[in-house]
User: Which sequence fits this backbone?
């Protein structure tokens, strides 16, 4: 996009020039960061989930240190907040919200969806998680405890959902195609077709 | 806030979030949600040490503080909560005291 001549573009050019002149940030580093930001999407998180479902050693690494596990996928985590991964299990379901603003694991999931930033979701997810899940059509097995994770500070959180029944023998790409961004926030759960 | 280092809590420690409202005393940037202030919870695990965002937000010198993942029973926060449900919040050590 060419914004030459516009005030914002001149400001940006001046700032970039100063950053380069002072050896703070190079043009190449800025280009690398823009490319990483453009590349970030729920597909990256879905690929990590599919790997965790098929590779127990990766699953352990993902749960122990999400940042390093994401780097294994070539995702640029330098400069990003640490990534924590929340493992859904029989009897335990996680739901992520940022009640204070819109903290989101952008490095692995891309931009947050519009509803994640809405005042309604932020207020209700923490107080009425079961009502929110019901509106998403998400039905948890009876007796499942909900753990709402309010992303308030320096970590960013993604949910590792449970692998759906009926996917035995599926390969990683097929499994990854089942996983939506809502599954990694916890408003939905992945299902086999 | 006092200059003393905040206490270190281990996983399983019972803690209470300070019942404090700095936003009533002037401009403030606070990462401790209002709904847990004065409430008791349990440390799930320490999350490491990070610069205090309450100072970073104003470009002040920011001390490095321990950050904890603290679990609260939903029932301790909201009267209508389902039994067993929980909320887990990242809270800096400067906001926590032994319960």
Assistant:
């Amino acid at each position: 996009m060419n914004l030459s001549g516009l005030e914002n573009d001149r400001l940006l050019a001046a700032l970039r020039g100063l950053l380069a002149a002072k050896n703070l940030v190079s043009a190449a580093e800025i280009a690398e960061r823009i490319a990483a930001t453009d590349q970030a999407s729920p597909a990256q998180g879905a690929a990590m989930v599919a790997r965790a479902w098929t590779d127990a050693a990766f699953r352990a690494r993902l749960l122990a240190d999400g940042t390093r596990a994401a780097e294994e996928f070539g995702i640029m985590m330098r400069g990003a907040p640490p990534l924590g991964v929340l493992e859904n299990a029989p009897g335990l379901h996680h739901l992520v919200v940022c009640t204070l603003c819109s903290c989101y694991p952008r490095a692995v999931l891309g931009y947050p969806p519009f509803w994640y930033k809405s005042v309604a979701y932020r207020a209700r997810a923490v107080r009425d998680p079961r009502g929110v899940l019901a509106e998403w059509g998400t039905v948890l097995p009876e007796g499942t405890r909900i753990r709402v994770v309010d992303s308030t500070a320096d970590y960013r959180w993604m949910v590792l959902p449970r692998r759906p029944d009926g996917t035995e023998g599926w390969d990683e790409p097929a499994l990854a195609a089942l996983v939506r961004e809502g599954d990694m926030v916890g408003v939905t759960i992945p299902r086999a077709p | 806030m006092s200059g003393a280092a905040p206490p270190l809590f281990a996983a399983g420690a019972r803690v209470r979030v300070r019942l404090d409202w700095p936003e009533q005393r002037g401009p403030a940037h606070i990462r401790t949600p209002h709904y847990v202030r004065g409430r008791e919870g349990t440390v799930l695990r320490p999350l490491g040490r990070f610069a205090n965002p309450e100072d970073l937000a104003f470009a002040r010198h920011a001390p490095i503080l321990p950050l904890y993942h603290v679990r609260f029973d939903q029932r301790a926060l909201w009267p209508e909560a389902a039994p067993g449900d929980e909320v887990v919040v990242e809270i800096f050590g400067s906001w926590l005291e032994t319960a």
Q: What stands out?
A: Chain A has a mean pLDDT of 94. The two ends of chain A are 40 Å apart (CA to CA). Chain A touches chain B at residues 82, 84, 99-100, 126-130, 145-155 (CB under 8 Å). The first strand of chain A starts at residue 83 and ends at 87.
